[in-house]
Design brief:
Elements: H1 2-41, H2 47-72, E1 75-80, E2 90-94, H3 101-106, E3 113-116, H4 127-132, E4 136-137, H5 141-153, E5 158-160, H6 178-186, E6 189-198, E7 217-223, H7 230-233, H8 238-264
Parallel strand pairs: 1-7, 2-5, 2-6, 3-4, 3-5
Antiparallel strand pairs: 6-7
Helix pairs in contact: 1-2, 5-6, 6-8
Length: 265
């Protein structure tokens, strides 16, 4: 009876903490939009310098948010291989198991752009970071690829989820080819990052309040070795090269998911 009561009380606390965290995220995003970014926009500098300042603000804001969730007792986390990130012209390709994946990644990558859904440009909690950090809309696929390639060639970093949306638990990966096309056209560093979460939570199939009953969730980030592009760049036509790289990425993350799922049990 005593143990069940403790489980219930800690669950209620984590549920409350989750609500507080996501409320803080929304309010913080809105305040950045109306207070912080307007101040940054009047500072001198080129468009790229303004974007870098915006990315730094988002990076530190997300770092604080992840720290808040950790300190409240909602989650724990581990990061393996962080020293392989934060390199100019680096394309970070990751799987997408939870709602907070992009927040977790950007909290550890100081200057990174990413692809966002066109609908989020109208979200008051996200509009400020999206506009001021130089994020790229997926509204026009051809324009999206061109902008991503140009950003990487100019020395910027990018984070891309080839799934395009969060994974569905128990379902095989279905990667879109945009990430592979961007990687081959840009010809820069490609680094895979495997994200795993156990117990599973904040997935595409669950609302934000569907949290584990007995324990905090644990979010792990494992940074892999850079993927050599040369074997794929030699393939003709380019459409076949994109297809094969995309299949390689899908197979890689499928294998990594099996490894870390077993690790989390």
């Amino acid at each position: 009876m005593g143990k069940n009561l403790i489980y219930k009380l800690t669950y209620l606390w984590r549920l409350f903490g989750t609500a507080v965290s996501f409320t803080a995220f929304g309010v913080g995003g809105f305040l950045l939009w109306v207070l912080v970014f307007p101040l940054l926009s009047v500072l001198p500098g080129s468009r790229r310098e303004r974007i870098k300042r915006g990315q730094h603000v988002v990076h530190y804001s997300f770092y604080v948010f992840i720290g808040l969730m950790h300190q409240i007792g909602i989650m724990t986390y581990e990061i393996v291989g962080l020293e392989k990130l934060n390199r100019p012209g680096q394309l970070i390709i990751a799987n997408h198991p939870t709602l907070v994946d992009i927040v977790f990644l950007i909290s550890r990558v100081r200057e990174a752009s990413c692809i966002v859904k066109a609908s989020l440009w109208r979200n008051p909690a996200m509009r400020g970071p999206i506009l001021n950090a130089g994020y790229i809309s997926n509204g026009d696929p051809e324009q999206m690829i061109e902008e991503c390639v140009n950003w990487l060639r100019a020395g910027g970093s990018m984070i891309i989820f080839p799934e395009g949306t969060r994974s569905v638990p128990g379902k095989p990966y279905r990667f879109q080819r945009g990430a592979a096309a961007i990687a081959l056209q840009a010809g820069k560093i490609v680094t895979p990052v495997t994200l795993s979460c156990y117990p599973s939570t904040l997935t595409k199939a669950e609302p934000w309040y569907s949290i584990p009953y007995r324990q905090r969730f644990h979010l792990a980030m494992h940074v892999g070795e850079d993927i050599p592009l040369e074997p794929f760049q030699q393939i003709e036509p380019k459409s076949i090269a994109v297809r094969r790289l995309n299949q390689f990425l899908q197979d890689y993350f499928t294998e990594q998911r099996e490894i870390y799922q077993n690790h989390g049990k």
